[in-house]
Amino acid sequence: MFNRSVNIVRKCCPCHGALTVTRGVRRRLPPDPALAEEIPVVEYAKKKPKENILYVWGLGEHGALGHYHQKRALMKGKSDIRFRTYNRPLRLHFGEHHSVVHVAAGYGFSLFSIKNSGPSKVYGTGLNTDSQLGFQGGKKNTPMGILIAPVPVKIPFNETNKTKIIGLAAGRAHSVVVTDNEGIFTFGNNSYGQCGRTIFEDEDYGGSHVVHNIKNLDGLKIQSAECGQDHTLLLMEDGSVYSCGWGADGQTGLGHMSNVERFTKVKGEIEGEKIVKISSKADCVLALNDKGEVFGWGNTEYCQIFDEGGQYQQVNTPVHLKKCQGFGKIIDVAAAGSLCMMLNEAGEVFTWGFGILGRGPVANISWKPEIIPSTIFGKTVFEPDMRVTSIHCGLNHCAAITNKGDLYTWGKNRGYCLGLGIKTDQFFPLRVAIGNVCKTLSMGVDHTIALCGTI
To answer: Repeat RCC: residue ranges (predicted)?
Structure first.
């Protein structure tokens, strides 16, 4: 019999108030402590922490965030889809249903790769005017120029069950998917040869079904890819670099300013070096070797490559940046549109070039690397071990991730791409309010994608 307590409220004189009658508990078994120990205890399995949590923020007018909300139009009661701009990190529902491993933010579009043994390994959302998200026909099989939510990108894998995605890259209107055993797949705009295939005049890229596959180059396995504005860089397993695409500012590093439609080995002063990282968001390129030395080529209008007073504005072959010496071993580099960054093994961040360099509103140009005070990234007497472990950049904004998983952003706040909840530009690093540990991120022109882990 269940325990019962009955409250009986009677109308009586004020001095007595309410009368409560409690019925006694009747037990089916005697209160024997020994019997209580024999009752089995059930332990439920703990919830497995999510491997990667997906956050997006910035401009959402083109569907690049993969999230939309629906409003009822005032006129005629029609349903109208309105895209929102998010000035703070938004946890994307797509990441709750898929295990996202890699992300790439392009110019108004986004790519996601997931853990999946089936054919749908890559998803995309946002602008698709040049088939940078593959052919998306919808129900009527007509080309769709904009996607409001992540959809599968059709890629012709030879071994669907075995092939794994190891990297993604996104440019202005082209995309690159890197696999472990099938090379790379490129699709999208190829006006300058950035997809590594033959350029055809008057080719219509809208609604294109073309997906170009490159197994290897000179017998070497492709390790990673980096997309600039309209050029592509490949890092090989032996540390060599190959490039193709637009070369008007020397960003291909092939010794000339012409466009190249086939991936060609980059030589210059990186020949014979084992490159471990390449970075390019526009037309300037930085490369880092295994010794911690920095190389660069491409646009140098703002002293990204050469020092102040240099007579060249473009460098079409890789050169060793001697101005990056004397700062300790460099472990990471990032090249934005008009500024560059590097990170040493002590966790110190250095910036140079033109723009918002992260050292306040006055410091907007510098021809040599200068440090951003480590205290801005949380290093104090109370947190002496706090240090930056990776740096990232978009076209005009930058970011840094610490060993504690904290994310800091600064730069031009176009489309609220900084995720700080403010409208104005940010002139020094400020921490982004993400409720989880930030692992990595990809920054486009006006939106940002972050992969985080649980605290």
So the answer is: 52-116, 120-181, 182-238, 347-404, 405-454
What region does 165 belong to: left with phi over 0, alpha with psi -120 to 50, or beta?
beta
Half-sphere exposure of 112 (CA within 13 A, CB side): 33
Candidates 212, 234, 224, 216; CA nearest to 165 is 224
Q: Provide the residue-wise pLDDT of the chain in tens; the chain has 455 residues.
A: 444 444 444 444 444 444 444 455 555 555 666 666 777 777 776 666 677 899 999 999 899 999 876 544 444 455 555 567 899 999 999 999 999 999 999 999 999 999 987 889 999 999 999 999 999 987 777 889 999 999 999 999 999 999 999 999 999 999 999 999 999 999 999 999 999 999 999 999 999 999 999 999 999 999 999 999 999 999 999 999 999 999 999 999 999 999 999 999 999 999 999 999 999 999 999 999 999 999 999 999 999 998 865 678 999 999 999 999 999 999 999 999 999 999 999 999 999 999 999 999 999 999 999 999 999 999 999 999 999 999 999 999 999 999 999 999 999 999 999 999 999 999 999 999 998 999 999 999 999 999 999 87
Burial group, residue 11, by CB count within 10 angstroms (0-12, 13-18, 19+): exposed
Q: Write the DSSP symbol of residue 127.
A: E
Phi/psi at 383 (5° precision): -130, 70
Secondary structure (H, E, C), 131-175: CCCCCCCCCCCCCCCEEEEEEECCCCCCCCCCCCEEEEEECCCEE
Look at residues 66, 75, 70 and name the one whose alpha carbon lies nearest to residue 148: 66
Residue 292, C-beta contacts closer than 8 angstroms, at least 6 positions apart: 328, 329, 330, 331, 344, 345
Q: Would you call 324 helix, strand, or coil by DSSP?
A: helix
**Would residue 241 be called left, alpha or beta, if left means φ above 0 and alpha means ψ between -120 and 50 degrees?**
beta
Q: Which residue has the tokens 């050469």?
A: 306
Helix, coil or strand: residue 270 = helix
CA distance 9 to 17: 8
Q: Residue 239: which region, alpha, beta or left (left: phi > 0; alpha: psi -120 to 50)? A: left
- CB within 8 Å of 387: residues ≥ 6 apart: 346, 347, 348, 374, 377, 379, 402, 403
The answer to whether the beta carbons of residues 147 and 136 sit under 8 Å apart is yes
pTM: 0.86
Sequence-distant contacts of 97-102: CB under 8 A, at least 24 apart: 98/123, 99/51, 99/52, 100/52, 100/54, 100/451, 101/52, 101/165, 102/165, 102/166, 102/167, 102/168
- Using alpha carbons, select from 207, 356, 334 the residue that is nearest to residue 278: 334
